[in-house]
Amino acid sequence: MIKKIVDDVFLQNSYVLEIDSKIVIIDPGYSYEDIVKYLDGKKPDLILLTHFHFDHVACVDKLCEDYGIKAYIHEAEFLIVQKDTLAELMGFSHVKVDGKNLIEFKDKIDILPSLKIINAPGHSPGSCLLIYKDAMFSGDVIFAESIGRMDFPYGDPQKMRESLRMIKKLDDCTVYPGHGPKAALSEITKLEFFRD
Question: If pLDDT is split at 50, 70 and 90, which confidence band does 59 have?
Fold first, then answer.
């Protein structure tokens, strides 16, 4: 079962699910209390981050410290970890994540052999798609009716075009985005953004 938790600050989606017998939190954002309430005493095993924008990582340190776990992030995203200019630009410079709680990954995470990871830059350098069975967690790469912004620091329209071309070739699945409702990938790829 995939549990979606929406924060009331940025309407950002966090997800809690089980992958390979591990309880996984994806993009915890500002949803600390709701995540803890949903876990109801269960201990999560790890956090997965689709990218490192502050609205997706705000409570990472608190969850890592409270549960003694680590958060996994794509290696290409470490530029943003070191200098999160987006948080500063938007007046959220108080959102910091201690690098000691982060573990870099590239294209796999050994303790989650069933998870497929695809780097999809454009919104940010290390934005990635996390695919488990027929579910894709897309962060801010694609949404039900749009694609991620590229006008933030480290956004790249050319890389986004390349990512969208790659996404069109993927098998159909249900997309669970970082904001908004879920949708079938086959429906999303019909949007004008996917036309060459």
Answer: very high
